[in-house]
Specification:
single chain; 265 residues; Aminoglycoside 3'-phosphotransferase, Chain: A, domain 2; two-stranded antiparallel ribbon; 9 helices; 9% strand
Length: 265
């Protein structure tokens, strides 16, 4: 399932003008010409590489600071409600029951109310920062983020949470839909990443600032599980790629219900 192509093209053009990602070299009726990047796409293990991970953290901070068209407010809640309605319109009654879709609107509303309290930084987020959307030049070690179909303004904590959740995935294994949460970064890894993220502009954050963002990010993993759980369900009805979308979705919802009582106490 993809967002509207026009939205993706507009995002690509704006990101390119801001000096991020591949340069846009030209457009024509059915497509566009992009700069070729002399870089390799990262692998699943690269995300936790102690030399590569800090480079990703700094690049995320740079990306979040982009000035992009559109209202600078969280888009995640509106999108999840839209996707929930779409999923319910596609799913069989059996799937609606098995995946607990009738309960999810209340969960989305609860998360929005809880996570929107207090100050939260809104930035332009990638929203799909899995290893396949990150490229690295082996010579210069420069990082490029690609594929902006889900990009929008959101709480930066949501994007960080998404990146951490993606460390449980390996889409190039024999079972690409299976998530291994033993590979989710431990608290020290998350602290290091967030410290680098916050300090990448030259100002060192306090321990309290790091700890606060670590805690908020962890709560936003719940929104992340719901978002991609809904994506998996919808994709199972509209995509023909050889990928067990429903099993992927089941794992994301399972993780939500497993983590909710721990993270929201």
């Amino acid at each position: 399932m993809r967002f509207l192509r026009d939205d993706e093209i507009q995002a690509f053009e704006s990101i390119s003008k801001n000096g991020q990602g591949p340069r846009l070299l030209g457009r024509f009726t059915t497509g566009r010409v992009e700069e070729f990047i002399h870089a390799r796409t990262l692998s699943a293990s690269d995300l936790r590489d102690p030399e590569i991970s800090p480079l990703i953290a700094s690049k995320m901070r740079e990306f979040h600071n982009l000035r992009m068209p559109g209202a600078k407010k969280a888009q995640i809640w509106q999108r999840m409600r839209k996707w929930l309605n779409h999923a319910k319109s596609l799913c069989s009654q059996k799937d609606i029951k098995n995946f607990g879709l009738d309960n999810l609107e209340a969960e989305i509303n609860m998360l929005r109310e809880l996570l929107s309290k207090g100050h939260q930084e809104i930035g332009f987020c990638h929203n799909d920062l899995q290893y396949g959307n990150i490229m690295m030049d082996e010579e210069t070690r420069s990082i490029t983020l690609i594929d902006y179909e889900y990009s929008s303004y959101n709480p930066v904590a949501y994007d960080l949470a998404n990146h951490f959740c993606e460390m449980a995935a390996n889409y190039h294994s024999d079972t690409p839909h299976v998530l291994d949460y033993s590979k989710y970064p431990d608290v020290e890894e998350r602290r290091r990443f967030i410290y680098t993220y916050l300090s990448s502009e030259g100002k060192k954050p306090s321990d309290a600032e790091v700890e606060q963002l670590v805690n908020v990010v962890e709560k936003y993993t719940l929104a992340n599980h719901l978002f991609w759980g809904l994506w998996g369900l919808i994709s199972s009805y509209v995509n023909t790629i050889d990928f067990d979308y429903k099993e992927y979705s089941r794992q994301r919802f399972q993780q939500y219900w497993l983590k909710k009582p721990i993270l929201l106490t």
